[in-house]
Design goal:
This protein is α+β, with helices and mostly antiparallel strands. Helix content is 19%, strand content 30%.
Length: 293
């Protein structure tokens, strides 16, 4: 039985490293800022299959995935995944209530998006939104129409590259300043005509993720992981996390999407390289710390 990393998971405002083993399901190992972390990649990176409705179906061919790919899926599993994706507009009949949000990542970096109401702010944490506010709630297609309306009216993109988000974290304005910017955009959005009648507007309540991300202790990023290789290892101190990124105290940034699909183990004694791995040992590790290394 092999536990493979599934990347970072945000729950209750706290980050954790996720794990999956066929026949055993999924588990997670909490991350703690300020603690030393060490990991090494072992074997080959394998497709994680398809996850839907909280359950994961393994890849039928256990296909290999390139070490530099940010998705731990083979092309076949990725296509199947998108066939049930709200983001890809292939699941328009989804009966759940959705929320439209305004997300701020740094000066001049704002986007509008939607997320299932039942997920709460998890999507904002996953994307690395520093400051944000809800705009409205309602059926999926009403949320999607509102999202498109606001994108055009506010002149904001539908995607912001992770590289820009990382760079912005090194020099953010004060929390009060970013809250004012979000509130001003919320007011502009709320004043626009032609909102779908089935979407309920929500009052502006700005939330800041400085605490969950550990922004006060983040060093400026000086190196960013670009891929994983078998046997590569890293030892460092976890300073914070934002979206899929782990920020280490020496300025190294590890995109945990690159960790997904790997079997991760404790590195050999004295072995440290610039190839980052992860931040918690898989389930069953006998170190007396509930899976933390």
């Amino acid at each position: 039985m092999t536990w493979r990393c599934t990347g970072i998971r945000w729950s209750g405002g706290h980050p954790a490293i996720g794990w999956y083993a066929e026949g055993r399901g999924e588990r997670s190992s909490p991350l703690v800022y300020g603690r030393p972390l060490a990991f090494a990649a072992q074997g080959e990176r394998i497709c994680l299959g398809v996850r839907r409705a909280g359950k994961r179906t393994p890849c039928p061919t256990a296909a290999r995935v390139p070490g530099r790919a940010t998705s731990a899926q083979c092309p076949e599993c990725a296509r199947l995944d998108r066939s049930f994706s709200v983001a890809a507009d292939t699941n328009a009949a989804d009966p759940r209530t959705y929320r439209v949000y305004l997300a701020w990542f740094g000066p001049g970096m704002v986007k509008v998006g939607i997320t299932a109401e039942e997920r709460g702010p998890a999507r904002l944490l996953e994307q690395g939104a520093v400051t944000w506010a809800w705009l409205g709630r309602g059926p999926l297609m009403a949320g999607r129409r509102t999202e498109e309306l606001l994108r055009a009216a506010l002149g904001v993109p539908d995607r912001i590259p992770y590289a820009r988000k990382r760079a912005a974290r090194a020099a953010l304005p004060a929390p009060a300043d970013r809250a004012r910017e979000v509130a001003a955009l919320h007011a502009r959005a709320a004043g626009l005509p032609d909102w779908p009648s089935s979407l309920e507007p929500l009052a502006c309540e700005v939330t800041d993720h400085a605490g969950p991300f550990g922004l006060a202790g983040l060093p400026a990023p000086v190196r960013v992981a670009t891929g994983m290789v078998p046997g590569g290892a890293v030892v460092g101190l976890l300073a914070g996390a934002a979206g899929p990124d782990l920020h280490l105290a020496d300025g190294l940034v590890v995109d945990t999407r690159l960790l997904a699909g790997w079997e991760l183990v404790a590195p050999s004694a004295g072995r440290t390289t610039d190839v980052p791995t992860a931040a918690a040992l898989p389930p069953g590790t006998t170190d007396g710390q509930d899976g933390l290394f």
